[in-house]
Amino acid sequence: MSKTAKSKTAATPLQPTRSRAIRKALVPRELIAHQIAGHLALDFCNTAGEHLRARPDELLRDWESFLRWATQVGLIGPPSYFELMRHPEPLDEIILLREAIYRIGLAVAGAGRTSRADLDILRRCANVPRPEIELNGNAGQWRPAPSHGSKQIGGLLAAEALSLFCSPRAARIGVCEGGNCGWLFLDESRGKKRRWCDMNDCGSRAKARRYYEKHKPS
User: Fold this and answer.
1) What is the pTM of this model?
2) All domains of the chain, ordered by start, with CATH?
3) b or e along 138-153 (b: 16 or more beta carbons within 10 Å of the residue's beta carbon)?
4) pLDDT tens-digit map of 113-141
């Protein structure tokens, strides 16, 4: 392609729908964490693997992975991903918030007592101005300000968690029984009988262990 042709192509604006599709395609596709919880705040908690261990596997390793996760769960859109990537922030407050939500989730599920200090963290983080809303047709999308990206996204997550914990649905919070997995989920099953984060993951391993115990040589 000639230099002139290149210049002509660059000067032709993309249609909005095509531009959004291109930006979406450019967001890294590597999945941060499976969305198995049935609620945004609990999926946020599940961004640490083997969460009951003393040192869980951290899945939010940097600013990019946090923004990618937020995009994958639909909390922000691809335009915000690229905009906020130009303004990296530390994740200390985000991880602090996640762990406070997680401890409350465990307590609500019957594995401890809710700490007032953790509730205070959620209330403090939720008490920030909401991001702007960008309309896409008749639907809205949060558009955090680059100068307050971490606080505003954290505020949305804290508000989601408080809304859940203060609702009747909190009684449906369960904890995966797969060893140290500890992932949280909303148990919508009849009789609240769900035991695993995913039957194809922890459930499958538990089934294999039971089979081995039953058939191992005496």
Assistant:
1) 0.82
2) 32-215 (1.10.3300.10)
3) eeebbbbeeebbbbbb
4) 999 999 999 999 999 999 999 988 888 99
